[in-house]
Amino acid sequence: ADLIPGYYSMEAIVSDGDASVKIEWIVEVRAMPTSRVNVWNNADRSGFIEIFPNPFTQLVRINYFLPDHAKISIDIYSTNGKKIKSLYSGDQPEGYNTLSWNGTDQKGAKINAGVYICRFVFNNADGIFIQERKIIFIPVG
């Protein structure tokens, strides 16, 4: 069954036989657009970007839909506005696309645990569209 967009609480218990740890988190379910009409007729364009898993521990996947060929940039920022890493900058064709980020900065060093901002800039003949999403990084070990 399909999930209705919204927030869901989840929990898991991980055990190694000697000890157990209960992990709880909140998951945001978003609808991804299936056509150009769905994106452009939606005034706030929600669902344009999907980030999973979030929070992440090792690797996060960023899925996005482009209704037209466009020049885009996808960058990661700290909450104080410092650019941490540029994930992509250039032209891309319309359709679904996916990027991954492993929690490293531009030099390849692991970042600290915390909240980061993924900024997506989409630039085509109709203008510039900017969307941001929070990403939470919780490193393992």
Uncertain runs with pLDDT below 50, 5 residues or more? 33-47
Distance between the termini: 35 Å
The helicity comes to under 10%
Please tally the β strands and state the result. 9
Structural class: mainly beta
Report strand %: over 45%
What does the overall shape look like?
globular
Mean pLDDT: 80
The number of helical runs is 1
State Rg.
17 Å
The biggest beta sheet reads:
4 strands, antiparallel
Strand order of the largest sheet: 6-5-8-9
H and E string? EEHEEEEEEE
Keywords:
mainly beta; 1 helix; 141 residues; 56% strand
Could you walk me through the main structural features you see in this protein, from its secondary elements to its overall organization?
Helices cover 4% and strands 56% of the residues. With 141 residues, the protein is mostly beta strands. The chain has a 4-stranded antiparallel beta sheet with strand order 6-5-8-9, with no helix packed on it. Strands 3-4-7 form a 3-stranded antiparallel beta sheet, with no helix packed on it. Strands 1-2 form a two-stranded antiparallel ribbon. The longest helix is centred in the N-terminal third of the chain and has 5 residues, at 36-40. The model is unreliable at 33-47 (pLDDT under 50).
Give the SSE map.
Blueprint: E1 6-15, E2 20-29, H1 36-40, E3 49-52, E4 60-66, E5 70-78, E6 83-92, E7 95-101, E8 114-124, E9 127-137
Condensed summary:
This protein has 141 residues and is mainly beta.
